[in-house]
Amino acid sequence: MSFDLNFIGILIGAIMASSVPLILAASGELITERSGVLNLGVEGMMIIGAISGFALMVVTDNLFFAVIGSMLSGLIISLIFGLLTQSLLTNHVATGLALTIFGIGMSAMIGKNFVGIPGKEFPLLFVNLKESIPFLGPVFFGHSIILYFAFGLPFLTNYFLKKTKTGLIIRAVGDSPTSASNQGINVTLVRYSCILYGGAMCGLAGAYLSLIYTPQWIENMTGGRGWIALALVVFATWSPIKVLIGALIFGGITILQLHMQAVGLRIPVQLLSALPYIMTIIVLVVISRDSRKIKLNTPTSLGQIFYKEK
Amino acid sequence: MNTKLKVSEISKIYPGCIANDKVSLEFGSGKIYALLGENGAGKSTLVKILSGVVKPDDGEVFLNNESIKLNSPLDAKKNNIGMVFQHFNLFETLSVFENLSIDSDKKDEELRELVNDILKKYNFKIDLDIPVLNLSAGQKQKVEIIRCLIRNPKVLIMDEPTSVLTEQETDDLFISLKQFSKDGILIIYITHKLKEVLSLCDEVAVMRKGKVVSVSNTIDEKIESLANKMVGENLNTIKKKINNFKNSEEILKISNLNFNSDDPYETNLNNLNLSLKKGECLGIAGISGNGQNELFQILSGEIITEGTSIMFRNKEIGKLNPRERREYLMAFSPEDRISQAAVPELKIYENVALNNFKSSNFFEKGLVNEKKIKEHSKKILSNFSVNTDNVELKSQFLSGGNLQKLIIGRELITSPELLVCFNPTWGLDVGAINYIHETLIQINEQGKSSILISTDNDELLKLSDRICVIYKGKLSKIMNADTVTAEKLGILMGGGSID
Question: Which among B39, B37, B75 is positioned nearest to B56, based on CA atoms?
Fold first, then answer.
């Protein structure tokens, strides 16, 4: 194996690609959680996004419809969660878990007829630049548009939460739904919107997997990424930028340890496989250890059911 | 600007309780109105209706002779009715300015200018860019008030605003409220504290069990007359007969007790000495935070000290934990009813069971003897006139007064020799306070002793046989209650010395 500069560039490009589903799903879930809703159905929404994206691609032969459709399907399945938790006031944790189980089963059922069908090539941008510039080329160019969107998303999310009125209202609802309601804010509407947005982003994350990252349908292909995204949100203490860092570390170590396994280092494989999880948690805990900031970022009402006095 | 607010025949019925029963009241600007009543009298429901949080079942609200619909908090805002709730409606993790800007349609710069003008005008000192959770209770309340002032309110409703304030903050608040009133804002002040009504308000409406029972000018009222209207019966003025205990048996002796804490928020106690006779009540006065908490915990066994420093009925108990001390017939009623004395999520009988000891037989071979506990709990509920006979009720649904009766009852039903209580009537209404006071006097008459740690001087003077003051972790000389006046206590509480 050669360690030339271009190879490192390609490696970094691969790391970025592998962290995209995590960034998308975690950014979506972050908004949901900031409004005080804990949706543990990320994995389920992702896998539904993955299968519906792939199925639509096969049926319509149109990648645009496939991507939009995956987001819509994520949104629709999160609407079930919204109806249950916001209108029927069920417990967030139990409902979220049910959503994941439902999503995995449902996707396997739909996906039966799509196993083994090859995917379509997803258009990549700036492919010439990727090949003509050493190192920086493979890092910055030759990616899908969704990757560029994913890397912009944490910064947009940060700006949205901190600088816009809507972001302020979402944070307020997550802090104290009762106070928000007494201020005349429609808490249920805000929470619904955040749940639906989170669902759409998880759907998109799933589509990235089945349309771009490994363009095919495999049962259970999200492989726990939804849970990682959930954990990232918490360990990143609800900060979008830290979610990005966490996702990159996780993606990075996942790719690196695969290479290490391939090289045949004399470290037990199990330890190497566990490395991404351990390192991500350690790094995020270390960069998020300012307890004052944690307190300010944590949505105080997370997971609490809100009902309005009549 | 002349504002007239009228509520007419307002009714609101909750399952099992009529919160407002055809309430009619009239208010006009330029005056401060008190709405007085015990907990559960319907004051809070009425103001929730006025602020659009709760919809009435029947009745109308008129602002300047026009009927207004208050279906949501937004409607109240549109009609320039501002409301400061007892439990703040602030977002703790957001900055002060974010809290203010959230429901304002003004641009940030405009709003900041406006807020700064308000800060200057009323001499409020608040940093707009720090998170609300770093503010004191008084400052948080000011943020709530500013939030109302931004909208140029015609009516400002304050719901029990002083329950979380220090004395200084209360004085400041009263000055501001009088200023608002002069500026033409109609102020409705909800409280159950009689002194505040007399010192602040011009007119007072008294509510009882959902009905308005009296409207009058405060000039024509006295504390006693208001208290009787509020409770609906003639309260006997309690006065304890002070006894001389020189020849009685000594029951508790604390000698040379020191407590040093690593926690900067705790107060160290220096060389405490006191003794208590059988049947005596010792009052300990002081401004809160001078070591009362630590003293209570040392007495209850939450903080353990040297065995010999506390002698109870000639036994060394300094090293014993609260449960072991209870076995020796000590009983404790902590200041914080909700988090220290009872678990709000547990049912009444479960809370009673928490206070078990060997002789109570609540548990057999590791199993809960539910029948026995429930019987025992029923006895407490009826003996101490707690306003329910349902032992399955979660404790959080009891009012403060009933919860305190339950706690005191739980402690006293085992006939302890000594009861230590810390601010037992904090936040309670007059009826409940009276009941607790009578109970405390009764146990002394039965030859049991008590230690009353309290920040309420009237209560101390009423109940104690001897009184001392705790200041910065030190006890003053212990004085006979009949030689002590409120002024003397005031001097000692501020760190001064007398005679």
Answer: B75
